[in-house]
Amino acid sequence: MLKIFWEIEPNTIGNRLSKEEEFCENLYDYADQDRRFIVKLPFMTENPQCRHGNLREIAAKRFEILEKKLSRNQKLK
Q: Is residue 10 situated within a structural domain?
């Protein structure tokens, strides 16, 4: 039965991937010495620039605010 299915069904496994799909597939092709996959972050450009400024400074400021807020909470002391 399965043999008949494969004879009737057209071969759709060919290389009919779009450029974006090929890019996605290539992200998972590499494994390190321990056979763990190394996956790159899927940026559309090589070195993307953040449009929101320096994220490290923003994160540090938010952390300071959270730290002050939690230090004033009596239930946490």
A: no
